[in-house]
Amino acid sequence: MLFLARILTSGLALFIADKLIGDVSIKGGFESYLVGGIVLGLLFTLLRPILKFFASPLTFITFGLFNIVIVASLVWLADKFLAQVEISSLMGLILSSIIIEIVSGLLVFI
User: Fold this and answer.
1) Domain residues for 100?
2) What is the spatial distance between Cα 35 and Cα 99, in angstroms, rounded to a whole number?
3) Nearest CA-CA partner of 84 in 51, 46, 43, 39
4) What is the distance in angstroms between the CA of the first residue and the CA of the last residue of the chain?
5) How many Cβ atoms from other residues are within 10 Å of residue 8's Cβ?
């Protein structure tokens, strides 16, 4: 159930990032957001805990801001895996990572 919620929130976060940030472009419709949510959900489920473990000293030193770098690297991987997702600049990558982190953080409160 939690994985399904992660997929839906990741797809929603991609939709919000697509509409708010000009450097983020997602081609296609609902299916593209769903596939993007599945890929991001898998990356967040499988790789994020490993990256957070090894980056915990940097996260501690930067008071948690290094989490944005971790999420940005996962979004970059999703961008490389998916032909529908195109992020054309570093600022778009960082802003989309912040949006995805905020929307994913809302999952905790639901």
Assistant:
1) 2-109
2) 18
3) 39
4) 13
5) 15
User: What residues of the chain score a pLDDT lower than 50?
Assistant: none
User: In this predicted structure, what is the pLDDT of residue 105?
Assistant: 83
**pLDDT at residue number 73:** 96
The DSSP bridge pattern shows strands 24-26 and 85-87 to be antiparallel
β-bridge mates for residue 24, sequence order:
87
What pLDDT shows up at residue 28? 87
Amino acid 51: pLDDT: 96
Burial zone of 105 (CB within 10 Å; 0-12 exposed, 13-18 middle, 19+ buried):
exposed
> What total of structural domains would you count in the chain?
1
CA 50, CA 7: separation in Å to the nearest integer?
A: 19
Q: Can you point out the beta strands (E) in the chain?
A: 24-26, 85-87
